[in-house]
Automatic annotation (TrEMBL):
This is DAGKc domain-containing protein. Residues 1-130 form the DAGKc domain. SUPFAM superfamilies: NAD kinase/diacylglycerol kinase-like (SSF111331). Pfam families: DAGK_cat (PF00781). It comes from the Bacteria. It comes from Qipengyuania soli.
Amino acid sequence: MENTTNWLIVNAKSGSNSDAAVKALYDACAERGLSIAKQISFPDEDLPDARALESANVARLFIFTGDGTLNAAITKVAGWGGEVLVLPGGTMNLLSVRLHGEDTPLEEILDRVACGAVKPVRPLMATCEQGEALAGLLVGPGTAWVNVREAMRDLDVAGVAQGTSAAVAETTTGPKVRLIEPARGHEEGYPLIEITPSDRGMQVDGYRSDGAGDLLQQGWALLRRRFREGPHERLGMLDTMTIESCAGDPIEVLIDGEPATLGPRAEFSVAPCKVDLLATDHGF
């Protein structure tokens, strides 16, 4: 039986956060003796910080959201002495996959937690001046497809149509980005560079759209967060790097799915997470 004090963060706008899914989570926790003392419903309620968790003697923070809210919540509790349990509550759940393995259902993750088959880890993050990514960073004009994804999530048909037109135009004509330190890949750059943090460094992949077919394939892959189904090439496994805009414009990025803007030349590096995350996969 689990004797620690657990709090839970949910987000109704995340992919798997329906009322039924949250109730099923509570039922699954109760069956395994994992009690939840308090629920925080973001964004209607503020995310807790380390001081709030410490004052309430919280030992574990369960987060049942998508990668964007996970990023915000984990950043908020930096320096906390407790443990964060990442649960698959979003659309793609890339951080959950990293910690618990591919296609591991929520019930199996909870089984592992209940029997103590967990390990506190501080995985490497990909960092830039606007934030830190535990799941991944996307860099370049191809990030415009995120607006289509949000419109699809909100069932906004007009927004999907407008966003697709704008994303196609931006990906086709927007200022491409290139890796300059170290110099890798095509000098003319890419509409999208993907940075995936791992315990070996940052895996860097460049995505090109040389024709209409490539463009549509890449856009569809982006919408489903299945980037590697689009045409791409491996640029390296790096600890530090610099990416610049081929046109000297500000660089658009997605940090764990959330948009931000960097200067025309941006540095990226790795750093360990600032709070313990519970891993249940043998990869850790």
